[in-house]
Amino acid sequence: MKEEMRTFGYLCPACGRTVMAARSVFALEASNAEVACECGKSALRVEFDGEKYRVYVPCGICGETHVAACPPERVLEGATALGCAATQQFCCFIGPEGTVEKNLRELAILAEKEQQQAGEESQEAFLDNVIMYEVLSELKEIAARDGGITCACGSSRYGMEVRRSAVDLVCRDCGAKLRIPAATDRDLDDLCCHLKLVIPGQRA
User: Fold this and answer.
1) Distance CA 89, CA 64 (A)
2) Structure confidence at residue 89 as a pLDDT band (50, 70, 90)
3) Residue 123 reports pLDDT greater than 60
């Protein structure tokens, strides 16, 4: 008689790999079990107190470890999924090997997409790219006018420091600054009202 097996699967929060391993129902009923990732930095643990199973799941979605208390039938029969409390996404699968493998593959794709999206958001240089582009274009137009950008110290030499939500005009002679906000439509409208800009420096 072939021994009945249960497959456990999760996504390693340390290296991002899918982790799958099978344990026999007999072994799960008799003692605790552990399914560890090859990287050695995470492991799913199953503990049985005679009434309930406690499953400790390293979560590949939020990075935390979740603990689920399950009745024996949920662990030893059919297919089940345990969720991440922070994101409401499934982060662990228990059941037949084929079912666990399929769900785990989909989880890995989802996690990869979310990481890419988070990376793209963190790479956004400006609070609003469109507004910043328009503000820089407007500043270029003002600067092209005769005496368009000057400093109160009498200098017409200046530099620009582009920040996440503003542009600083810096006098190269006295070091004074004029901050031009560049985050909202109103910031752009305010700038468009100016034909010339004067950095509030110290008069020589």
Assistant:
1) 13
2) confident
3) no
